[in-house]
Amino acid sequence: MGTDQISSLQALLALLWRSVTRSRRFPEDQESWYAFLIGMRPRMRPPLPQQYFGAAAQSGIVTMKADELLERGLGHAAWQMNKMVAANTALEATNFLESWIKNPMPFPLINFIINNSLCMSGSPRFNVYGTDFGWGRPIAVRSGGGNKPYGKTTLFQGADEGSIDIEACLFAETFEAMMEDAEFMEAVTV
């Protein structure tokens, strides 16, 4: 795509999105979208301190027709995610917060959950394996059974340094089809 600004996370999410779309055999003209949270801590001016306790995120949505998502390649999908994240600037965050103060509304997660979408939560930046409740280092981290609508993907820092764990709530048929998806399997298997 002529840039070195696409993150490995954006590439990974684009890979997952393409595989799910291919595996579900969407019609070419059907819109598909990926909704995710964008961390606003470093984008605020001044930046929020590391010890800030609370959510500092905005939602972002990338939308494409299935044929564009699948035919234009992995780089194009990741680049669209990258552009959407980059558009969430300090000014955008400030405008959102000022608007929200005037008209507070709960986060409309339910609007993200439809059959042709994926929705991401969590972040590989959180040191979930560094938390010790007195039993030692966790061997696995999972989010539990609640809040698992179809299409929800939850990301965690992986157990191995530099890795990412992804939980995905999809139908068994979708996972079975993904196992036949050459692009996806080449990327996720050793």
Walk me through what this model shows.
This protein is an alpha/beta fold and 190 residues long. The chain has one domain (8-183): Chloramphenicol Acetyltransferase (2-Layer Sandwich), CATH 3.30.559. Helices cover 35% and strands 19% of the residues. It is built from 7 helices and 5 strands. The chain has helices at residues 8-23, 66-71, 74-86, 90-102, 109-112, 172-178, 182-188; strands at 31-39, 57-65, 117-123, 152-157, 164-168. It has a 5-stranded mixed beta sheet. Strand 4 and strand 5 (164-168) form a beta hairpin. Helix 1 crosses helix 3 and helix 1 (8-23) crosses helix 6 (172-178). The radius of gyration is 17 Å and the shape is globular. The two termini are 26 Å apart. The model has no long low-confidence stretch (mean pLDDT 86). GO terms for molecular function: transferase activity. Pfam families: Transferase. This is Acetyltransferase. InterPro entries: CAT-like_dom_sf, Sec_Metabolite_Acyltrans. Keywords: Transferase.
Task: Tell me briefly what this model is.
GO terms for molecular function: transferase activity. The chain is α/β, with parallel strands linked by helices and 190 residues long.
